[in-house]
């Protein structure tokens, strides 16, 4: 297996971060999560998202890492807004180098909680080691203290989150996250 196809965890972390902002506090309502067509099968073995009640959702995922998430992995996030002519790209972020340390720096507690939940021995350190990771019924509950999410548009939004090999700048994993703000 090509190791560049096996780093889905940053995608899941972003989903966790974006979805923890409560809708009734001006946050985002996660509608759906799907793996992009060009992501190699078997990296994300199982992905389920379900609504528990009006303010709480749960996600379960099984993923396989055959290489560490280290400084050679970047993160690319593209935002699109739904309108009368379909999906329209919105300028958002350039490729973010060193995804693990960047996420740790800006979203430390979310990242530590996520990695602890899936069983990483040192969830506060980068790189994240290879392994099989399972997240079962991880809830996203409304919390008025949660930071606001910096999505630049209102309405129906699609975030395309890709993990990128920083040497080639070629995406090797992609997830579409559909939200309503």
TrEMBL record:
The keyword Signal applies. The keyword Signal applies. Keywords: Signal. Residues 1-25 form the signal peptide. PANTHER family: CHEMOSENSORY PROTEIN A 29A-RELATED. This is MD-2-related lipid-recognition domain-containing protein.
